[in-house]
Specification:
Elements (H helix, E strand, L loop, with lengths): L6 H21 L2 E2 H8 L3 H14 L2 E6 L9 E5 L5 E9 L4 E9 L4 E9 L4 H14 L3 E8 L1 E4 L2 E5 L9 H9 L2 E6 H13 L7 E5 L7 E6 L2 E2 L23 H15 L4 E5 L7 H12 L7 E4 L4 H23 L1
Parallel strand pairs: 4-7, 7-10, 11-14, 14-15
Antiparallel strand pairs: 1-3, 2-3, 4-5, 5-6, 8-9, 11-12, 12-13
Family: Belongs to the ROK (NagC/XylR) family.
InterPro entries: ATPase_NBD, ROK, WH-like_DNA-bd_sf, WH_DNA-bd_sf
Protein name: ROK family protein
């Protein structure tokens, strides 16, 4: 009697695919035995998954390993050309906007980086910019968009660039371009990019503060390797903390107050700080303020970042690739 395939069985198979793909990317190339050791799956299960992935072209069979007396093992690697990913962020306001884009392969290798400034951005310009990139990269299957605003379930609830306000941007882009789309907050992406490039094994909270022109400080937080979104995707909107400024308050004191608040709430092990109003030497005054208000054992490490660009783009690229791999596994 044939046992019907339950949803649980199907889900397990898809989960196995995700485990194998992620392990293969982490190892760059691997044998079935390597993947079994990395994932905890059996060699036979890894072999079945790899055979199916080779048929779709997502995984490539490489040369056989040198034999040590027995049968030489087949080595495998993810196919970097299986698809490409667009990571794009828009920054600025209604007066002027800048768009920065990164195109990467299925294995995360950078293919091209682009940058453009628009004195006055329109949706037509925005869509045209994406369309031009898709024309140049026809195998582009996923895009991640970063915006200075609050995004809830694919809808832009609020944004510093008003043309995006209330737009259901995820379904709009999916319908227009027919690719996987993810849209997120600028600071969440930036914090994750910083985390991945500086402390990817850290499980304690890590925070990232951005001080742009003006008083609207932004913050992103990563806890146990995951971005903290909050119940309504409002986590990190630290400009809403009612901090009463002193008459002659300097930017270092303002940021010091925010760091102290973060320590009291999430107790980060590390806080990165960036923005045009911050210089590396300001961290001395920020650290001194924190020392005056916190016990020494709770002080986080403060790190200056001269620009958010690479952290931002890396965060978009890695989170989009992670989400798309999950999407691929569960759409097979």
């Amino acid at each position: 009697m044939n046992t019907p395939v339950t949803r649980t069985t199907r889900e397990m198979k898809k989960s196995n695919v995700l485990l194998v793909v992620n392990a293969l990317k982490a190892l760059n190339s691997a044998t079935k035995a390597d993947l079994a050791a990395q994932t905890g799956l059996s060699v036979a299960t890894c072999g079945t998954v790899l055979n199916n992935l080779c048929l779709t072209g997502e995984v490539l069979s490489l040369a056989l390993d040198a034999s040590s007396g027995g049968r030489p093992a087949q080595r495998y690697a993810c196919n970097p050309d299986f698809f490409s990913v667009l990571s794009l962020y828009v920054e600025g306001n209604n007066s002027a906007c800048r768009m920065s884009a990164l195109i990467s392969s299925a294995t995360g290798d950078v293919l091209q980086q682009l940058d453009t400034v628009h004195p006055s951005l329109s949706l037509e310009h925005f869509f045209s910019y994406i369309s031009d990139i898709l024309t140049r990269y026809p195998n582009l299957q996923a895009m991640g968009i970063g915006l200075p605003g609050v995004i809830v379930n694919g809808v832009v609830a609020s944004c510093d660039i008003s043309l995006f306000n209330d737009l259901p941007l995820v379904p709009m882009l999916q319908e227009k371009f027919g690719v996987f789309v993810q849209v997120g907050n600028d600071m969440n992406y930036t914090a994750y990019g910083f985390y991945r490039s500086n402390c990817p094994q850290e499980t304690a909270p890590v925070a990232y503060l951005l001080q742009p022109e003006g008083e609207c400080t932004g913050c992103g937080m990563v806890i146990n390797g995951r971005v903290l979104q909050g119940a309504s995707h409002f986590a990190g909107e630290v400009s809403h903390i009612p901090l009463t400024p002193a008459a002659d308050e300097q930017i270092a004191e303002r940021l010091g107050k925010i760091v102290v608040t973060l320590v009291a709430v999430i107790n980060p092990v590390m806080v990165a700080l960036s923005g045009p109003q911050i210089q590396a030497q300001d961290l001395v005054a920020i650290r001194r303020y924190c020392q005056n208000h916190l016990p020494a054992q709770h002080l986080p490490t403060l790190i200056y970042r001269p620009s958010i660009e690479q952290d931002y783009l890396q965060g978009i690229a890695e989170l989009t690739l992670e989400s798309y791999n999950f999407h691929l596994a569960f759409e097979r």
